[in-house]
Amino acid sequence: RDRNRALMTKSSSSSPVGIRLVTASPCRVANRDYIYRAYVLVFTFLVYGSFHMTRKAISVVKTRWNPECTNKSLHNHEVAFQAGLDADGNSSTLIYNSSCEAGWYPFDGDRGSFYLGVLDTVFLFAYAFAMFVSGHIGDRMNLTYFLTIGMLGTGIFTGALGIPYFFNLHSLWYFVIVQLIGGVFQSVGWPTVVAIMTKWFGKGNRGLIFGIWNSHTSVGNIVGAIIPAVFVDTNWGYAFIVPGLMMVVLGVLTFLFLPSDPEQVSVTPAQHHPTPEAQVHVQHEEREERAPLFRQSPSPMRIHGREDIDDMQSTLSQELQAKEKPQAIGFIQALTIPGVIEFSLSLFFAKLVAYTFLYWLPSYVKDTLVVDGKQPTDQEAADLSTFFDVGGIGGGILVGFLADRMGMNAVPCIIMQLLCIPAVGDVMLCGLTYG
Q1: Distance of CA 263 to CAs 190, 200, 425, Å?
Q2: Three-state secondary structure call for residue 234
Q3: Which ranges constitute the DSSP H helices of 187-270?
Q4: What is the residue-wise DSSP string for 1-60?
């Protein structure tokens, strides 16, 4: 009884500040476990969706920074002239590129696409390498606090990409440094929310749950395209600042109201359905725990008074807590887990395609889509690019459902990746021309 009271006190003191205020209310709610799990599912969905929302903004603004022109060496509505002959053989001058839109130096010149690619590369390298460190830090500190740091940093440096519009900054190094630091903060999101979900949900029906939950990437991309699209044609600075502010606000709410562990709010821990081998090991440990407590003592233990009893209870409580606390594993140990390398390679190639669409689809639509002889505006290109993510929502849920039904996670992944090949090839090779 004393141990349970101590654990409850510890869990309440480690829970987020906002949760403590809510749970201090005299009101009691039925089905607490179910409500808390649904709450965490929705909260983490919004959290990681916001990471993708901020990540998507730059792909929308690229069409404004680097407008499609006949001659990329021209800037700010300059006009190019080319000498030629008319139909009667008379000398004439052909004017072209007169509709070239004003871009943003240094991205509007003939090396503009290269510089934009540099920004993407810097961000993704920082994101990838910092992910290793983020995973280790997340195993060793409060996940809610760590996630809050990542969200606040992401929001600040996303908004920083919009500052050049208001102060007329044209330094390539400014954009590179902001992307570099932003990639580091973005790396906090994925390992942390996955760790929180693992604590809250077991492995039963995990495919369907994670299929629904994992649609946060597509929802975040859609929101991250629609919001910047509102500003891209008039004031692209707000295309970064508004998503950045939204991220900061959600980061504060995360600090106040997201419990990273069920024990923080006295909710029953998730059942992880161990493998048969692990179950045998657990049963063996349970038999050991039910055995006489002092059977291995070489001499009888004498308890002389209340202080000895308290000391023994304290020692046993510390041993049980140390035994229950999960131990972090290293990088090499993680690679030895069956399936990690195979699924990592599969995810690598899937992400290769996904991030190409994430960062360049609005630009591709703007440059290649022709409907009745007209190209779309920047806002229309951003809106049209969201249909890719609409398909991603349904596809992710379908794959999760099939994984649970079939009991084989790899088969639905293989099928979807094979179907992706002709779909991507058709778009890239045939282009987007209608009317």
Answers
A1: 22, 10, 49
A2: coil
A3: 189-200, 206-213, 216-232, 238-257
A4: -HHHHHHHHHHHHHS-HHHHHHHTSS---SSHHHHHHHHHHHHHHHHHHHHHHHHHHHHH
For the chain, the first-to-last Cα distance in angstroms comes to 76
Q: Which residues pair with 371 in a beta bridge?
A: 374, 434
CA pair distance 344, 323, nearest whole angstrom = 31
Comparing C-alpha atoms, which of 165, 159, 160, 161 is closest to residue 103?
A: 165
C-alpha dist (Å) from residue 111 to 72, 91, 96, 105, 107:
8, 33, 20, 10, 7
- Say how far apart CA 69 and CA 41 lie, in whole Å: 46
Torsion of CA 56, 62, 63, 67, to 10 degrees: -170
Q: Which residue has the tokens 């069920």?
A: 262
Residue type, 110: D
Phi, psi of 94 (to 5 degrees): -95, 125
CA 428, 112, 222 angle in degrees (round to 5)? 55
Q: 10 Å Cβ neighbour count for 110? A: 11
36 has pLDDT over 80? yes
Q: Per residue in 89-127, pLDDT tens? A: 554 444 334 455 678 999 988 889 999 999 999 999 999
Distances (CA, A) of 18 to 21, 22, 125, 135, 146: 5, 6, 36, 26, 17
Token pair 């102060």 in the structure block, residue: 167
**Contact call for residues 224 and 405 (beta carbons, < 8 A):** no
The CA-based angle 371-373-377, given to 5 degrees, is 65
Q: Read off the pTM.
A: 0.74
CA dist 48 and 169 (Å) reads: 30
Would you say 84 and 95 are in contact if contact means Cβ atoms under 8 Å apart?
A: no
Mean pLDDT over 357-361 rounds to: 83
Least confident of 50-64, 158-172, 316-330, 382-396: 316-330
pLDDT tens per residue, range 246-266: 999 999 999 999 999 888 888
In angstroms, rounded to a whole number, what is the distance separating the alpha carbons of residues 397 and 212? 5
CA distance 248 to 174: 21
- pLDDT digits over 21-32, tens only? 766 655 566 678
Q: Measured between alpha carbons, how far is 14 from 11 in angstroms, rounded to an integer? A: 5
Phi-psi region of 275 (alpha: psi -120 to 50; beta: other; left: phi over 0): beta
